[in-house]
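HUMAN:
Could you generate one sequence with tokenized structure?
ASSISTANT:
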Amino acid sequence: MFWERKLDEFVTQLSSEHQVPMGIHLWNGKQIDLSESPKVIVEVPSVASLRHLIKPTLNSLGEAYVEGKLQVEGTVTDIIDVASQLVEASTGGALEHSKSKRFRHSRKIDAESIAYHYDVSNDFYREWLDTNMVYSCGYFHALDDTLEQAQEQKIDHILNKIRLQPGQTLLDVGCGWGALIIRAAQKYGAKALGVTISEQQYEEAKRRIHAAGLDDCCEVRFQDYRDITGQFDRITSVGMFEHVGLNNLQSYFSKLNSLLSDEGIILNHGITSSDPNSGGAPAGGGEFIDKYVFPNGELPHISLVLEQMTRAGLEATDIENLRRHYAMTLEHWAARFEAKSEKLKTMVDERHFRIWRVYLAGCAHAFHQNWVELHQVVATKAGHYVLPLTRDYIYQDQE
């Protein structure tokens, strides 16, 4: 049969050349081990499901797992590692970034995309995020830092970078559940405003601000960044510009520049592509993320970020790549997700559980492999260099 010949070719190649630690259980009872000690078992329920396995991409394998076309046993870390090995073997080891995509972005489209990802439920995210529900890359001073430490350190790292002072006004674009603005008001004495277009994030952030007794100096709004008015001494944007769109980066940075006071400082923190052409993650990983996780997301290379910031009248003063920190953060999230798996399955259906499970572990792998990066860029208005001569000030409170 045709499928038997294709399967034999697939097994022969992997067994002789790659030793992928995987076993295959077919619908007819046949079992095939590709190595002596398989770490992952893939159950193929039908001939139709076999195509996802013998012509693998990260997108096709991820889709087959999410949609239940393949059943997989093993730790999620091993599953991701085996999937990556399968794709590398099928491509001869050459994993190339996908071509960059340019999606339409409007208030309506962006709001729907954000709601799809962030409005699953606050309780769902609360189970595997840190106590303050920070859903972005942490900052580790040591390998054994807890997730709570790393996220608090990240916020302080950002606020130190922008030299936030008591009484200054701070705008946080895409404020999530409010951790940064609450910290800015409590520890740094700022008057902080956060905006989000996730309704559930807005409600939770508002609750947390009130519970902390910060209603007089901390505010959250359910508002698109394009509708913000006023002037601010400091602006932060953390994990938000991935949703802006490559074609809209200049207008995005121009809008933030218009909101920044002449002596102000801005910090943009976001995921970037490691591909100079701003392509998506290799081997179909980007397609999976777009379809199942972050609709309409686009990742620029850091060179494009800096170009568009410059065109928007901003001068980059400090650039830091936190790729390794995000890999570690995602490992913490994935481990917490696994530990809470039984409870999480009661909060979402099996399909959505599988999406988040493979997404978190898959992204950790992507950051480890340098398929994607995370950059923090500090900037001022062009010609208004208001920062000290050295970077010492960033670390003075981190000793």
Notes: Residues 350-368 form the longest helix (19 residues).
